[in-house]
Write a structure and sequence with these properties.
The chain has 187 residues and is mostly beta strands. It contains one helix and 19 strands. The protein has one helix at residues 168-175, and strands spanning 2-4, 11-14, 19-20, 24-25, 32-34, 40-42, 44-47, 56-57, 59-60, 63-64, 69-71, 74-76, 96-98, 104-106, 109-113, 120-122, 152-155, 158-162, 179-181. Strands 1-6-11-14-17-19 form a six-stranded parallel β-sheet, with no helix packed on it. The radius of gyration is 17 Å and the shape is globular.
């Protein structure tokens, strides 16, 4: 399924509306209502305003996205609401968080990030847990194979004017064993 702006960049969201890319399950039975696979978000622009941490995430609760993509999108100047900042606390504000497997961030622009936290973050620890992820049954056990195979791709993106807690080259070095980050990603 593709969710695409009629004119690329022509749909501009202000005020920080959040986006989740993922499936849906019945909370009681665990039955899959929607798979959260092969979803594409294409050509949208988020400009200014305040947004939640994990602003765009590849999951809907515990329903992870797989083989899904955000492409040709831009996030510009999204900040943390001053009412959400606790004095003396270091606030992390992440813009795109990848859960699941084989998801992609392609041809996107990330600009004017003044808060701490990742522009694009892959959460590996969540990827291999079998549902239900938590259970009230004390005898329930789940098998977590962790990050045997994640397969995310982050390619041809533009990063401009962001707070640099770690250099982009170091970030790419850390990510290489788990994520395909192509050389044409620009800073």
């Amino acid at each position: 399924m593709t969710f695409r702006a009629e004119t690329p960049g022509g749909v501009i969201f202000t005020g920080g509306p959040r986006l989740t890319i993922g499936g849906s399950s019945n909370k009681t039975t665990g039955e899959k209502l929607a798979t959260g696979e092969y979803l594409i978000v294409d050509g949208f622009h988020w400009k200014g305003g305040y947004g939640a941490s994990n602003f765009i995430e590849f999951r809907n609760g515990y329903d992870l996205a797989h083989h899904s993509t955000i492409q040709n999108c831009a996030i510009d100047g999204l900040g943390i609401d001053p009412d959400d900042i606790e004095e003396g606390k270091y606030e992390k504000h992440r813009w795109v968080v990848l859960f699941g497997t084989y998801n992609s961030v392609l041809n996107c622009s990330f600009m004017n990030k003044t808060s701490a936290g990742a522009l694009v973050l892959a959460e590996y620890a969540y990827n291999a847990w079998g549902p239900p992820y938590n259970s009230d049954d004390p005898d329930y056990e789940t098998n977590n194979t962790r990050c045997d195979l994640v397969g995310h791709t982050i390619s041809n993106n533009y990063f401009y004017n962001y707070e640099k807690r770690i250099s982009l080259s170091r970030m790419l070095e850390i990510a290489k064993p788990f994520v395909l980050v192509l050389v044409n990603t620009k800073t």
